[in-house]
Amino acid sequence: MTVDIAIILIPFIMAAFIPIFYRQLSKRLIGWFVLVIPVSLFLLLTTYIPRVSSGQTLSNTYEWIPSFNINFTTYIDGLSLIFSLLITGVGSLVILYSIFYLSKKESLHHFYCYLLLFMGAMLGVVFSDHLMVLYAFWELTSVSSFLLIAFWHHRKASRAGARKSMTITVSGGVAMLVGFLMLYVMSGTFSIREIIANIDRISDHTLFVPALILVLLGAFTKSAQFPFHIWLPDAMEAPTPVSAYLHSATMVKAGIYLVARFTPVFGGEIVWFWAVTGVGLITLFWGSFNAVKQVDLKALLAFSTVSQLGLIMSLLGLGSVAIHLGYSSETVIYTQAAFAAIFHLVNHSTFKGALFMMVGIVDHEIGTRDIRRLGGLIRILPLTFTVALIGSFSMAGLPPFNGFLSKEMFFTATLKITELDIFSLDSMGVLIPVVAWVASIFTFVYCLIIVGQTFFGKISPDILEKNPHEAPIGMLISPFILIGFVVGIFFFPNLLGHYILQPAMASIYPTFPSTEEMTPHISAWHGLNTELYMTIGVVLIGVTLYFLLKRWKPIYRIFPQKLSFNVLYERVIGFGENFSERATKRYMTGSLTHYFIYIYMAFVIIAAGVFFMTDSFEWNTKNNAAVESFELILVFVMIFAAIAILFSNSRITTVLLNGVLGFSVAFFFVVFRAPDLALTQLVVESVTTALFLLCFKYLPDLKPEKSTKRVKFTNGVISLLVGATVSVIGLAVMNYDKFESISTYFEDAYNLAGGKNIVNTILGDFRAFDTMLEVVVLFIAGLGVYALIKLKAKKGDADIEN
Amino acid sequence: MESLMIILVGILVSVGTYLILSRQMIRIILGTAILSHAVHLLILTVGGLKKGGVPLLSQSDGPYTDALPQALILTAIVISFATTAFLLVLAYRTYKTNGSADFHELRGMSDE
Q1: Are residues A313 and A395 in the same domain?
Q2: Helices marked H in A367-456
Q3: Would residue A91 count as lying in a domain?
Q4: What is the C-alpha to C-alpha distance for residues A751 and A766, in angstroms, rounded to an integer?
Q5: B108 falls in which pLDDT band (50, 70, 90)?
Q6: DSSP annotation of A68
Q7: Looking at the structure, do residues A503 and A357 belong to the same domain, yes or no?
Q8: Which ranges carry the MrpA C-terminal/MbhE domain (chain A) (predicted)?
Q9: DSSP readout, A216-273?
Q10: How confident is the model at residue A661 (pLDDT cuts 50, 70, 90)?
C-alpha cells in the first residue's frame, strides 16, 4: 500500500470509525477531530506540488480484482492535483465552518460520516486511472450527496431535493458507464492513459461518437448543465456547509474534471466542440438569467453556480479546438481557453465558497435568506458584508479580484475563436462572444442584487427586534481565508499559474510538447483592448439594469410556468411511478395461487424448454427390472387413490386416501430393497395421518372449490404439464450413463465406518453433518409448532385472538 | 418397472400440483405431502430398481441395491414430515386468527 492509495482510503476509514466512536467524543470535539483529516491530507498533497509542477506524474497500481483486470491505479498529474487540493482545502474550511454553523443538537456523527464519505469518493474520482473504479467512486459521490441533501430528512423539500439530484446524476452516471464500456470495446483497455495513448486507433470507430455523447451526458448531469441543471437549486435544501462544499466547490466540478480528462480523447471531434461549448454557453446564459429573478439567496447562488459551471464548460469546449488543429506555434493560442477554464475553476471555488458561507451566516444570524425581507445588514454584519462584497465583485468580474482575470481570459477566448474558419465557426462563431457578453451582464446584475438587497437599503423592523449581531469568529475564519485567496490570486496570479495550473495543461494537451508555451503570463492590464471595452460595457449596462430592475422584471412572467423543465421532470417521474405501480399490481396480485402458477410455469418453460431444445429425450426399457403382478396392482391402487383425492369433498376420505398413498409408498420401499425407508415411512405416515385427523378437530370441513370452470381448467393444464415434464425428464435420466456411479464407494462401509448397514453408515458417518442439520430443521419446525400453538398474543393486541 | 414408476411419479406430481393450486389450506398441505411422496419414489427409481440385494453387509456378499438414494430419501422423509406438521399448525393458527381457511378470502378480495 502506498501513500497515494492511503489518501483515498483514510476518509473512508474515518467515516467507518465515526459511528463507533462518536459517543466517546463530546459534540463539539467531533468536528475538530474530523477536521484533522482534510487538513493533514491537504498538507500532504501540497508536498506533491514541486514534483508535479516539474512535469512528473505519479502512478501506483494495486491489483484489486486481477481476474477481471480491474486494478486500483492511482494517477496523480497536474489536473488531479488541482482537484484534490480543492477537495481537501475547501473541505477543511467547510468542516471548520460547520463546527460553528451546525447546532450541537443535530446528529453530527451522521453529518461528518457522510462528509468524509464524500471526500473519499471525490478523491477517488480524481485519482483513479481505471474507468470502472472511477465510475464506482463517481456514483458514490452521488450517494453521499443524496445523504447530505436529505440531512434534515424530516423536511419534505429536503427529501424531494435529494431524490431529484440522485435521479438525475445517477441516470447520467449510468449513461457514462455505457460510454466507458464502449471505450473499452474500442480500445481494449479501461485505463484512461492507455486510451489516450492509442487514440489514433479508435477515433474512426463507429462507436466513437456515441461513446462521446454518453460520457458527456454523465458530465453534464453531474455539473448541472442545461437542461439537467434543475437538480442543483433543489439541492440547496442541504445544510449550507454542504452547499458550499459539494454543490459549488467540488462535486459539481466532477463533470468539469471528466470533460477536461477526456479532452485528449474526444477533443478533436466537431460534436465535442459544439456540444461542450454550446451547452456550456446556454447554461451560462440560462443560469445567470434565472438567477436574477430569485428571491432566496441560496437559490440565487445555485443558479449562479449553474451559470459559472457553464462558463467553465464552454471554455473547455473552446480549448478543445487546439486538439483538432494539432500542435503548431499558431494553434497554441487556443489552449489558453482551457487554461482559463482551470483558472476560473479555482477562482470560482474561492469566491463561491465564500459567498455560500456568507449566506449561511446571514441565515444563521438573521433567520431568513429571503432578499425581500433582508436589507441594511451592513450595520449589523460589517465583516460578513466584506465577504459578500469581495465575493460578489469577483464573480461579477471586477478588479482587484481574481474573477476579473479569468473573466478577461474568457472574453479573449471567445473573441479568438471567431477568427477560425473550421466547424462552421465563420458563420456561427460570432454568437459565442455575444452570448458570453449578455450572460456577463446578467451575472453583474445578480451580483449587485446579492450585495445591494441584502446589505443596503432599509432594515426591516422585525429583524431589529431580534437584536442580531455579527457571527462568531469561528464562522468568519473560513470565508476570510477564501476571500484572502480571492485578493491574493489577483495580485500573484502567475504563482498559481506556474506551479499549479501549468502541469494541468500537460494533462489536457498531452501531445503538445511544451507546457511553458501553453501557460500565458496572466496580468491585469492588457491595454485598451476589446475585452476591456466589453467589461466596461457589462458594468455600465449592468448598473443601469440593476436600478431599473422593477421596470423590466415582468419579462420573467412571459415564460409560462407549465413549460419549465421542473414540470417535465415531475411529469416523467409521476408517470413512471404510476406506470410501474399499475404494472406491478397486475402480477403481484396477493394471491398465493397466482404465485404458484408463476413458479410452475417457470419450471415447465425452463426445464422442458431446455430439455426439448437440446433434444435430450430418450426412452428405452432395456435396463428396466421386470414388473411383477402385485407391483402392478400397487401402482394402480396409488393412481386410483391419487385421482380420487381430487374429487373427494370429505376430509376423512381425503386423509385416508393420503394414507393409502403413504402406505403404498412404504410397500414399494419394501419391494425395492429399502427396509430402513419402509420402517421410517410407516412411522411417519402413521403420525402424519394422526396429525391430520387431530387438526380436523380445529379446522373447517372441506368445501367444494368455488373456482370457476376456467380457473379449474387452467390449473389442470398446468398440473398436467408439470407432471409430464417430471416424467419425461425422469425417463431420460434413466438412460444417463456418462458417469460411473459413486455408490460402490459406500459398499466398503465396514472398513471405512465400521457399520454393516450401508444406509446407516451414510447417515451417521459419511454424511453425518447433513443428518445433524436435518435434526436442526426438525428442531426448528418443532419450535415453530410449539410457538404457534402455545403463544398467545400479548395484552394490548388481544383482539387478534378474538 | 422403472418406466412404470416414473409415469406413476408424473401422475402423483400432477395431482400434488393441482391440489397446491387450489384455494383451501388443507388441500394445499395435502398437495405438498403428495409431492414429497412422488419425489421420494423418483429418487429411488432413478437410482435403479432391484439391482441387487438389501444394502446390509451382514445379509449377503453383494451385489447391493444403491444405498445413496435411500439415505437421501430417509433425510427427505423426516424433513417433509417436519414441514407438513408445521404447515398444519400454521393453518390451524391462521384459521383461529382470521376465521377462514380459504386463501382467496384471506386475501380480502372477492373477485378472481
Answers
A1: yes
A2: 382-396, 402-417, 425-428, 431-455
A3: no
A4: 12
A5: low
A6: G
A7: yes
A8: 715-790
A9: HHHHHHHTT-TTGGGHHHHGGGS-HHHHHIIIIISGGGHHHHHHHHHHHHHTT-HHHH
A10: very high
Contacts of A72 (CB under 8 A, 6+ apart): A5, A61, A62, A63, A64, A128, A130, A133
Write out the H or E segment, with its range, that includes residue A703: none
Instruction: Render pLDDT for B24-40 as a digit per residue (tens, 0 to 9).
Output: 888 899 999 999 999 99
DSSP per-residue string spanning A122-142: HHHHHHB-BHHHHHHHHHHHH
Is residue B87 less than 8 Å (CB to CB) from chain A? no
Please indicate, yes or no, whether residues A543 and A597 belong to a single structural domain of this protein. no
> Total structural domains in chain A?
2
The verdict on residue A375 lying in a domain is: yes
Instruction: Domain B2-107: give its CATH code.
Output: 1.10.287.3510
A627, closest residue in chain B (CA to CA): B1
For the entire predicted model, the pTM comes to: 0.76
Side-chain-side CA neighbours of A278 within 13 Å: the count stands at 12
**pLDDT top residue among A6 and A706:** A6
Give the residue numbers spanning the domain of A290: 267-547
First vs last C-alpha separation in chain B: 43
pLDDT tens-digit readout, B56-107: 888 877 788 888 899 999 999 999 999 999 998 888 888 887 777 777 777 7
What distance, in Å, lies between the first and last C-alpha atoms of chain A? 65
CB contact under 8 A, B85 and A785: yes
Sort out which chain A residues have CB atoms less than 8 A from B111's CB and list them: none
- Does B10 reach chain A within 8 Å, measured CB to CB? yes
When CB atoms are compared, the residue of B21, B102, B104 closest to A718 is: B21
Looking at CA atoms only, how far is residue A754 from chain B in angstroms? 11
Residues B105-109: contacts with CB within 8 Å, 24+ apart? B107/A590, B107/A591, B109/A590, B109/A591
- CB nearest to B70's CB, from A600, A676, A741: A676
Q: How far is CA A616 from CA A598, A629, B10, in A?
A: 25, 32, 18
In a domain, A785, yes or no: no
What does the H/E/C string look like for A564-621? CHHHHHHHHHHHHHHHHHHHHHHHCCCCHHHHHHHHHHHHHHHHHHHHHHCCCCCCCC
Task: Tell me whether A752 touches chain B (CB under 8 Å).
Answer: no
DSSP-derived pairing of the beta strands A70-76 and A58-65 = antiparallel
CB contact under 8 A, A651 and B112: no
The burial of A766, by beta-carbon neighbours within 10 Å (0-12 exposed, 13-18 middle, 19 or more buried), is given as buried
Q: Is B45 on the interface with A (CB under 8 A)?
A: yes
**A430 three-state secondary structure:** coil
Residues A526 and A612 in one domain: no
A484 shares its domain with A633:
no
d(CA A19, CA A22): 6
Query: What are the extents of the domains in chain B?
Result: 2-107
Judge whether B81 and A684 are in contact, CB under 8 Å: yes
A647 and chain B in contact, CB less than 8 A: no
Give the residue on B whose Cα is nearest the Cα of A778.
Answer: B82
Are A539 and A649 within one domain?
Answer: no
Whether the CB-CB separation of A310 and A440 falls below 8 Å is answered with no
CATH number at residue A631: 1.20.120
Same domain, A369 and A302: yes
Q: What nine digits make up the cell of A426?
A: 465563420
Nearest CA in chain B to A691: B85
Whether A490 maps to a domain, the answer reads: yes
- CA pair distance A305, A255, nearest whole angstrom: 13
Which residue from A minimizes the CA distance to B57? Answer: A756
